[in-house]
Amino acid sequence: MSTMARVALLTLASLLGACASHTPPPPVVQKQVVFSNTPEDTSPIAADVLFRALGLVGTPYRWGGNTPDSGFDCSGLIKYVYNDAAGISLPRTTREMIVMRAQSVGKDKLQTGDLLFFATSGGSQVSHAGIYVGEGRFVHAPATGGTVKLDSLNKAYWQKAYLNAKRVLPTEQHLAHNP
């Protein structure tokens, strides 16, 4: 068989093989939430909360834990950060936090320092919480055997479990009117 015949045969075989292959499935598109918070929107108190929370990433999870030395559960982390960085005393449990008197905030209006609440066991009963740090991300103490971590609200798991957000930090407008 001549070289030209071999090239033609190989070309024909590769074209037929390409036609017989399966087309890849279309990509799965997750609904993305647009977050409006920018660094310029962050108050000095919210910035302190942000840096304190981020500084605790990697701290071991411990159920009932509420200090960097003992480790944290989700509500212990929140209580510690707000007390340490902003001098704000919050309730100890997520159930107490979600019902406290504080402004509820829409997902599209989140600001650095807002508290996020989740129903990780399904239903509508709060079972987890975190601190929003901006750009669709939050810091939380997720589970036994894990550590405090930075996570994304755009993950399908967190979108499904999301319940509510509350603003407990004073806003810039509030600070300007109440020096």
TrEMBL record:
Keyword hit for Signal: yes
Signal peptide: 1-20
Lineage: superkingdom: Bacteria
Residue ranges annotated for the NlpC/P60 domain, each copy included: 43-169
A GO biological-process term: proteolysis
InterPro entries (alphabetical): NLP_P60_dom, Papain-like_cys_pep_sf, Peptidase_C40
Entry keywords, A to Z: Hydrolase, Protease, Signal, Thiol protease
GO molecular function, one term: cysteine-type peptidase activity
Protein family (similarity comment): Belongs to the peptidase C40 family.
Protein name according to UniProt: Peptidase P60
Record organism: Pseudomonas versuta
